[in-house]
Amino acid sequence: MAPPQKKLLFGTAGVLSLACALGTAAALGTQLWVRGTILCSTGALLVNASGPELHKFIGHIQYGLFSGQRVRQCGLGGRPFHFSFFPDLLRIIPASIHVSVILFCSVLIVFALVGAGFFMLNAFGSPYETLHGPVGLYLWSFICCSCGCLIMILFSSEVKFHHLSEKIANFKERTFTFKTHSEQFANSFWTILVCSLVHFLNALLIRFAGFEFPFSKPKDSGTVTGAVDLMY
To answer: Which sequence ranges form a coiled-coil region, renumbered to this chain (predicted)?
Structure first.
């Protein structure tokens, strides 16, 4: 059986990994990845709007990885429009990047669940086989942290470099042209950042599990555990 400090640290890491898996799964299905405002530049130029009048031409947009909504305003009140990335926007978005973001989110969920299971097995079971010993735990944490970083990099490039919000705002528009007035990443995007940091923290917990803490019980002289502790 694992000593008390390993039970505490591995149990904590397992709970954190499980929370990250659930958080990523929740983030995957929301529309809270990007929020912003869009300006109807055509309408604003027609009436030469400025100052307070400009607010009549500023709409809102928010979207996630599968769907979203926009409210267009061209001086005549807001008109909401709901859209889906698949298949509605598939031809105007960088599809390969978008699908990669969804794929890495799925991988992050799977490996976070796998990592949570192995952390718990290390805490309350026999922790010294390779796949659910320290080598395996480092591997699961590294994969999850890497997937989280890739998700943020790819999605940021899709939004900032490929002007995703502007493409969505101008979807099926023939008369008016919209430009991004402001945009910011929303809760679901920052959830992925938190998950990446948590998996990095889990790697530190694995290392700390090899240290002796004051509340740990003395080991029996006949128990062979030195070689295993060196692995952490």
So the answer is: none
* Residue 17 lies in domain: 4-209
Q: Which helix (H) or strand (E) holds 83?
A: strand 78-84
Residue 217 maps to a domain: no
Q: How far apart are CA 18 and CA 166, in angstroms?
A: 36
Answer yes or no: is 221 within a domain.
no
Looking at the DSSP assignment, which residues form a beta bridge with residue 79? 72
Number of structural domains in the chain: 1
Bridge partners (DSSP) listed for residue 203: none
Q: Say which amino acid occupies 98.
A: H
Q: How far apart are the first and last CA of the chain?
A: 16
pLDDT tens digits, one per residue of 121-152: 877 776 545 455 577 788 888 999 999 999 99
User: Per the domain annotation, does 77 fall within a domain?
Assistant: yes
DSSP 51: G
Which residue has 């659930």 as its token pair? 22
Instruction: Give the alpha-carbon dihedral of 225, 15, 25, 197, to 10 degrees.
Output: -80
Under 8 Å between Cβ of 99 and 155: no
Q: Residue 211: which pLDDT band, with cuts at 50, 70 and 90? A: very low
Q: Which tokens go with 205?
A: 């917990």
